[in-house]
Write a structure and sequence with these properties.
Elements lengths: L1 E7 L4 E7 L7 E8 L7 E4 L2 E4 L1 H20 L4 E6 L1 H4 L4 H12 L3 E3 L2 H16 L6 E6 L4 E6 L6 E5 L3 H8 L7 H23 L6 E5 L1 H9 L14 E3 H13 L2 H5 L12 H14 L4 E4 L4 H11 L4
Parallel strand pairs: 1-6, 6-7, 8-11, 11-13
Antiparallel strand pairs: 1-2, 2-3, 4-5, 8-9, 9-10, 12-13
Length: 312
């Protein structure tokens, strides 16, 4: 089958076209993505956070564009899902209903735990059973997902409101952020993560700690990992000892200076200090000395779950 996955994330909206069939590794055929940064189009109101009209219009336009591309590429089955920026907007369901009425594209809203479970499935399939108990960490624009387990479904899946985009918007008033704001965010992040450590650790020590998401990939690249252009099959890792030093340095740099670092994208350059604070805290509190970066994540998990549902 030629499958299409439309991923409406807090930072990036991404159409991934893959050739796949049950029991085989999905092969990417085409990729189209735009950094809409929906988390920056969230407005605070008395009723709660709302996706702005500008954000909703841009999302609608991208869905129409993605639908045309999917048709041109011969996609048989288009799956669409949205994560935290839409999930937490009080008008998110209404925005998606309007898009569905106009395009017939049904965008399903994933819960944070579903995100964590599907990402875990993708990581398990990538590394296999020999990796033992996995600890999987994913920092998105709106949330941090943590999952641990020995099977294809994790024993525990946690989602925390600690995405790099959300924290940058809510805690930093300038770039580079003032030192007191960095310290305040560090305290908040560590308090939030610490509440979940016991829920995860009670299932046992991980044999293999893994990171997914653009934030971890960029941090690993800054710390010396090979560029993505060298291919998916190279081992890439992030050592906590290296990350600790970079966390403070990134917060002291401005966006222009961060853009000079290897692997840093313009769309996430302002979010990187907050992302590093979350990554540093998570590795520290879970006692992880080194994370291996997995090229597969949520999108691949969605595809794998779809293929598993096909008749044998």
């Amino acid at each position: 089958m030629r499958l299409g996955v439309l991923d409406v994330g807090s930072n990036t909206v991404h159409l991934l076209v893959m050739d796949a069939h049950r029991g085989a590794r999905p092969l990417p055929a085409y990729s189209h993505k735009v950094e809409l940064r929906l988390s920056e189009h969230v407005e605070r109101t008395e009723d709660g956070d709302r996706l702005s009209e500008t954000g909703a219009a841009r999302l609608h336009a991208f869905v129409e564009e993605a639908l045309r591309i999917a048709e041109d590429k011969g996609v048989e089955d288009l799956m669409a899902f949205a994560t935290s920026a839409v999930r937490e907007a009080v008008n998110g369901d209404g925005v998606l209903e309007r898009i569905k009425a106009a395009t017939q594209v049904d965008i399903q809203v994933l819960s944070g735990q579903e995100e964590a479970r599907l990402t875990f499935l993708a990581v398990r399939r990538w590394f296999g059973w020999s990796s033992g108990r996995l600890l999987v960490l994913d920092i998105g624009g709106g949330s941090l997902e943590i999952a641990s387990g020995i099977d294809e479904q994790p024993d525990v899946a946690v989602s925390l409101p600690l995405g790099a985009g959300r924290l940058t918007r809510d805690w930093f008033t300038a770039d580079p952020p003032p030192a007191e704001e960095v310290r305040a965010l560090r305290r908040y992040v560590r308090t939030e993560i610490a509440r979940s450590v016991g829920d995860v650790a009670r299932y046992g020590q991980a044999d293999h700690a893994v990171a997914t998401s653009k934030t971890f990939k960029q941090l690993a690249r800054i710390a010396g990992a090979a560029p993505s252009a060298d291919g998916d099959n190279l081992r890439r890792s992030l050592r906590h000892a290296d990350l600790t030093g970079w966390t403070g340095r990134l917060a002291a740099m401005d966006a222009r200076e961060r853009m000079g670092l290897p692997g840093v994208s313009a769309g996430r350059v302002r979010q990187l200090p907050a992302g590093a604070i979350v990554a540093d805290a998570t590795m520290d509190l879970f006692g992880v000395a080194e994370l291996e970066v997995c090229p597969w994540a949520l999108r691949e998990g969605v595809i794998l779950r779809r293929l598993d549902a096909l008749p044998g």
